[in-house]
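2024-03-11 09:14:02 INFO worker-7 job=invfold-0412 stage=load source=structure_tokens
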């Protein structure tokens, strides 16, 4: 059984989608949900699915002597960033080469990088007058949102769409594709 950790900072809709997707798998198991925020609703969602949780402040995340033993404790072999806001330290990327993926709410390389998350991305897409947006799944590298792209899914934007409308359309893509995309990466990796 390949054990997966999901890192999340917010409400955890993608986290829950992944937990549901792998709930009955005989190959993959969500073994841990990690958050940098003790009030992240992703932790509640994890508890509702009987998945262990850990809250790791930035100081713990940035300390390999504290954080790597935590990953070992749960037997983590693959990491999925699903709305995780802190920059992942290089030591962790090195420990999980091509075994850590991120979801970004835009078609990278546009609208990526530090500070470009959630509504900030959708507002930038709207302000630029884009006619499409989407989601990107990519490997995590030491460059924020700069890792090798795995897959993208897009949707049309109408001129009348607000940033909230754009966010909703992009979120529908996440709910439709993200868990399947993660499983496809797992199938190629293990």
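2024-03-11 09:14:09 INFO worker-7 stage=emit residues=190
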């Amino acid at each position: 059984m390949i054990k997966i950790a999901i890192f999340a900072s917010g409400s955890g809709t993608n986290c829950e989608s992944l937990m549901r997707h792998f709930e009955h798998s005989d190959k993959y198991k969500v073994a841990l949900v990690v958050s940098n925020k003790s009030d992240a609703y992703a932790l509640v969602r994890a508890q509702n699915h009987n998945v262990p949780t850990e809250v790791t402040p930035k100081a713990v995340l940035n300390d390999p002597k504290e954080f790597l033993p935590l990953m070992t404790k749960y037997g983590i072999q693959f990491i999925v960033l699903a709305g995780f806001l802190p920059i992942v330290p290089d030591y962790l990327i090195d420990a999980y080469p091509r075994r850590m993926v991120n979801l970004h709410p835009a078609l990278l390389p546009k609208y990526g990088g530090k500070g470009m998350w959630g509504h900030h991305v959708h507002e930038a897409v709207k302000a630029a007058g884009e006619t499409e947006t989407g989601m990107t799944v990519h490997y995590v590298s030491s460059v924020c949102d700069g890792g090798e792209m795995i897959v993208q899914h897009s949707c049309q934007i109408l001129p009348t769409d607000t940033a909230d409308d754009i966010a909703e359309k992009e979120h529908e893509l996440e709910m439709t594709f993200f868990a399947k995309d993660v499983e496809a990466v797992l199938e190629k990796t293990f």
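2024-03-11 09:14:09 INFO worker-7 stage=report msg="Residues 163-189 form the longest helix (27 residues)."
2024-03-11 09:14:10 INFO worker-7 job finished
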